[in-house]
Amino acid sequence: MTSGRIHSPELVVLLLSLTAAGCGGTSQGCIQCSPIDGRYALEFGDGMTPGTCQGVTVTLPQGPLDMTRQGSELTAQLDGLTLRGTLYQTNDFNLLGTRAGSMDGGTAGLESENLTGRYVAGVGDGGVDKLIGDWQGNFASTSTGGTRRCSVTRPFTATRQ
Fold first, then answer.
1. Number of domains in the chain
2. Cys-Cys crosslink for 141: which of 6, 56, 125, 154, Cβ 3.0 to 4.6 Å?
3. Which residues contact 84 (CB under 8 A, 6 or more apart)?
4. The domain spanning residue 87 has which CATH number?
5. Per-residue confidence of the chain (161 residues) as pLDDT tens digits?
6. With contact defined as beta carbons under 8 Å apart, do 95 and 114 qualify?
7. How many helices (H) and strands (E) are present in the chain, helices listed first?
8. Residue 22: inside a domain, yes or no?
9. Does 76 fall in a domain?
10. Range of the domain at 95
11. Is residue 12 domain-resident?
């Protein structure tokens, strides 16, 4: 007989983040989805790099962010990394991507990144669609004999090109 417990901390974090991503904690994607597909130019807001990142190479993605949607499922490409996520009826979205080899500590640099935010449709004839939200990158360095990890968060705005 099993206890029903989940023994992988990474899996618990992923499940909780996906469950809480939608409005009111729902994980159901949009039914009548907004046209979020497209190419977006990224611009990051100011932020501090945590002291825990000392000795870890931290680089923000340059973009562009290329997004496709099938139903409520999103797939995006950002600096060679594939991110997957969900678009919700409220136009909130989440995207998560992990580099191969990162779960065993085999990757130095960016291990994973996620974007959470909202799609804002352009208004009027000259209005431009935007994404606004937060980007989080999880980094690792193996050059100091052990593996050091740190997490960096920045607000972002992405404008459709």
1. 1
2. 56
3. 73, 74, 75, 76, 95, 96, 97
4. 2.40.128
5. 444 444 444 443 344 344 444 344 456 899 999 999 999 999 999 988 898 898 888 999 998 999 999 999 999 999 999 999 999 999 999 999 998 654 454 557 889 999 999 999 998 777 899 999 999 999 988 765 678 889 999 999 999 99
6. yes
7. 1, 8
8. no
9. yes
10. 35-160
11. no
Cα separation of 74 and 96, whole Å?
10
Omega prior to 155 cis, within 30 of 0: no
Tell me 105's DSSP state: T
Read off the tokens for 158: 């992405």
- What is the Cα–Cα distance from 48 to 151, expressed in whole angstroms? 11
Q: How far apart are alpha carbons 89 and 93 in whole angstroms?
A: 9
Structure tokens at 8: 């992988």
Tell the residue number behind the tokens 């996520």, with chain if given: 85
